[in-house]
Amino acid sequence: MPDHRAIVPESNSADHDQPGFLAGGGACARLIAEKDWSRTPLGPIDGWDQALRTATAILLRSPVPIVMLWGTTGVMLYNDAYSVFAGARHPALLGSDVREGWAEVADFNDHVMKVGLAGGTLHYHDQELTLHRNGRPEQVWMDLDYSPVLDAQGVPAGVICFLADTTARVEGERRTAFLLALSDALRPLDTRAAITSVASERLGEWLGASRVFYAEIADGHMTVERDYFHDVPTIVGHHSLEAFGPDLLGAYSAGTPVVSYDVPGDLRLNDEARGGLADRRVGAFIDVILFSESEWVGILAVQSASPRAWTAAEESLVQEVGERVKSAVERARAEEDLRTLNETLEEQVTARSAERDRLWNLSQDMLARADYAGMMSAVSPAWSRMLGWSAAELLGRGYASFMHPDDAPPTLAAIAHMAETRQPARFENRIATRGGGWKHIEWTVSPEADGMNFVAVGRDLSEAKARETALAAAQDALRQSQKMEAMGSLTGGVAHDFNNLLTPIIGSLDMLVRKGLGNDRERRLIEGALQSAERAKTLVQRLLAFARRQPLQPVAVDVARIVENMAGLIGSTLGPTIVVDTVLAPDLPPARADLNQLEMALLNLAVNARDAMPDGGRLTIAAARESVCKRDARDIPQGHYVRLSVADTGSGMDGETVKRAIEPFFSTKGIGKGTGLGLSMVHGLTAQLGGGLTIDSAVGAGTTISLWLPISATAVSDDEPLAGPGPALQAVGTALLVDDEDLVRMSTAAMLADLSYAVVEASSAEEALRLLSAGLEPDILVTDHLMPGMSGVELAHLLKATHPGLPVLIVSGYAEEDGIDADMPRLTKPFRNADLAGSLAALSVPARMG
Fold it and tell me: From CA 432, how far away is CA 419, in angstroms rounded?
């Protein structure tokens, strides 16, 4: 008699503390009893609906996996059998909303809930899903039956699922089908290359491997004729295995599979072996030994570019494929040996023909026989390997149809000339591949004696052409870089010399203006000369900005305040036909910049925009915070920035003009209408600050120029800079003035004297040291930086030890690379009396205007 007794899970004493409907429900029942359900949509367990209690009691006692999704959110309740299926997701899965519990299949479960709560049923047979049950994605197949669960009013309140895991069966069926199909595919193949190529491709695609290949190992070397590769480079070629050490070679000799899950951490491999595998982009591998003979070893290798935990099923599959490949290759080798024997016998009679056929079949170059009418009668296998076309396709069309349209006329003309002269010819052209690309081929053609046909040998030049193109691009970039570097050095040096020339000019003219010497006409002439000198000073500053040698004093600046303060000035400068808008993001962080240079750059960009809108338009000044995660095509370094943009609705620029826009002295404004240094100056300024400049423009669509200013690490100071000398004092003191330029020293000495200093001059740092050794005790040292012998900075450092209380002011034409300390006070050439007085005041030393 059949046993109709119900199978009830074992109970224990803990069951007596559970609600009655959970009794005998196993481990999941105990978890349900212990869980605080008040935090879920189901509410406290004592208040559960009777329908919910009944359905839960039924599913807990079932030996098959059952899960119930209760309520609109699908709160998950399941039994012990389902907890095994859930894997490491249990017990966190119990009581969670199904959409969150199985997030990777949320859309699938959304559909289940929608149909089930509407009263419908669903059935899936061998449904494939990818689940993360044990910390990694797994493909699983299941039979799933979904039905609604009704509440006391007969309304669907939940969905119950009866689940059967069919993964093992489906994988077994698929594995068997794969192996059968592979055997069928290998059966008609009669060469090792074809057999291993097909097996490698199919196995690589099945496992999602990075590289699969067959190789022969002999005398410590590995030969790979073909390989399947995906997102990694091919390794076809001859490789030495000496670096891989004796352990790996010994394993090959033993004939056992060699498996590595993590090449970088595989202690069986020495450092050199791990480095060699890393160079080949190998993070994990399975090597199955196919043959082990006295002279060579054959292996089937499966590789992953990153570490991979190969499953036992995957390792077993690779071994089974290896066995099939081994059988097929042994058959092919036997057939090949037989063919070789037959060929040897035939070669005794037709040696020349056999050698030609061998060359024909094995040549890496494309060999062909063709007629002058435009058709080929024979092509070597290299054509199909290189271009992808089958022999039938190649012989069924005229050879001109495979040529690039631009190359066909000269190619056909060369063939026609060969027919006339009966002399071989050589030329290059582009031949179409079956995939839609083009390959550069070098051809050598020679006529046959019949006067109707010729033979052709084609060599692939694609890689050589690519190398030539890359080399040419690199050479162009190098020449441009060298040109810009040379121009930067030249302009920086010239600007430095001009600063030395302008310093006595501006200083002397400034003194004449302040003294009010001469009549009205003479004073106007002096003021005009001073204005021209100031314009020359501005030009020099632009040269220094382009050369990135401008002496900057970067501080934290409020970009929004600068824009707001300058908006009125810019509006009046541009005129009534141009509308000026500002778009400033709220809470802009402070930017790191030189305030004066930034204002000059902003005004310069606005004037450029005005010139691009002769008939009027709109100018938009915008500022926003932006970040660059890595250096991109705009060549902006990685970092956080305040992006200050000036956009116009003007004529715009074409691509070539945009490329040259920041070159020094390049201008589209015509002769006499611009120096060509405006954008190069702005570009140099941003680069010197560690940011960058970008240009977005198109003809007829306006131009947007953006300054990428690094965000400052410090806040904006509310203190106003000192704008003039300190309070007038009766006793000022002695100034030691050091400069190797006589005119500069003379002009500076006059300014210091005008500020009520007694001036002691020295033409070098060495002379200054002698004066100090002789007993001179100055109240301040004013020194040039770059001088023959000891520099001004070196002098200042030396005097810190011998005269620690002596204030030092460095005067410099630009911030040289051997540089001035960031905290060392300095004054930039050329300068006026007021500039010198302000610098002295910043040092807290007295200065009294004479």
Answer: 25
